[in-house]
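Q: Got a minute? One more chain.
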Amino acid sequence: MFVIHIASEYAGVAKVGGLADVVQGLTRELAIRGHSVEVILPRYDVMKFDRIWGYTKAYSDLWVPYHHMWVHCDVYFGFVDGVKCFFIEPHFHKNFFNRGVIYGHDDDAERFAFFSKAALEFMLKAGKHPDIIHVHDWQTALVPVMLFETYKNFGMVHPRVCFTIHNIHHQGVTGEQVLRQVGLNPAHYIVPHRLQDMRWPGAVNLMKGAIVFSNFVSTVSRRYMHEVMHTELGHGLQHVLNQHGTKCGGVLNGVDYAHWNPEVDRFLPQKYSLATLDDKYKNKRALRERFWLRDEYKPIIAVVSRLDPQKGVGLIRHAIFYALANGCQFVLLGSAPDKKINEDFWNLKRQTNDNPDCHLELGHDEGLAHLIYAGADMLVVPSAFEPCGLTQLIAMKYGTVPVVRNTGGLADTVCDANHGSRPFHERTGYTFNDFNNAGLESALVRAIGMWCHYPKHWRELMENGMRQDFSWKTPAQDYLNIYELIRAK
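A: Always. Here it is, folded:
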């Protein structure tokens, strides 16, 4: 099968969050299985070009319509972790992808609408007719709209489209000028059954357009699909999702175990496995040395997270002081895009800087993240909502017990040690329901109690998590089944 992914991120070269990991992990697994897989991305100035093998200019005469003019683009090619990737670079005074960052500008909708148009133009001019086009989140949500409304008239009638919602909170709500930019008449599309935003009737909702025009819509966990269809977590898209419910489904994300695996992890001072689990504690000692924490018999509770309201920053803050007050150590690795949250955590860092049981590392450090997963005893994920979550999946692979809120993909992947419906050998962590301090404490007190008083059972929890298989093997097959389903229509 020939599959093209069109995305705004790809792990290894251009990553902001979990979207990059998902696109990379899925495409690698599909390629390993023998399918023809290509990825189309913007060529950002902040890409890690050293991670691209065989980087070369592949196409130098791509002209992309933009309002009433044409923009000249070059297309570069290279392999990223064995997957064929194309990078589109527009030569334009607005410098769409030479901004020093991937997201965060007022014209993001315009930038990614242009990229979506350019990706389709490249496929048309290069004669690419994939069986499936797989697009991701609002940034590429215009692709199915333009494919079925414009490009089918140019002979692109073969591809079917799968659209994956990674986070429905960000929908690409924008003005009608974005439609004009890509050659679509706003009067024809800003209507309730197409791209009209239900909360702002004069606005365009790009994600809604992809839901309407795609052949299949997936979320990154089954629980999250249920939540966005039937609760306020749908952020206004509940109605359109239910209208198109027969083509909606959830597919749990996977983890790339070539990268996240304590048996082969190049960042760890001591590799280990289920059979050599005691070696994990050499990484715990290394983590303490790295952060100048005292070496005492007590658990290390960790957070590895983006620090924003979705991730439960208030509960993360509470977890720090609760852990310290209950005989634990606490480490955090995270960055805050919001200025106020960033200032708050820098104040927290200064407040706890001299505490020998606490260290807050504000920023992103890939190697340090690996060491924390390996060295910590527990990982806290107190999200307000969580489409899938990768941190709890990674933690389990490293024998670190997750303490999570019972929402979205967290609920799908973590079975509570005390109250889970499965037998104990299948239970993997601790969960809580209420998004407040008392809810978090209800899980933490049980986890800390188990660690302190029932070490044998704690060890079993660690081993249970390490035995779980959250690789891309099953999700890739789920997507292949979806591809076959929509290809047959």
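A: The CA atoms of residues 74 and 298 lie 56 Å apart.
Q: Perfect, thanks.
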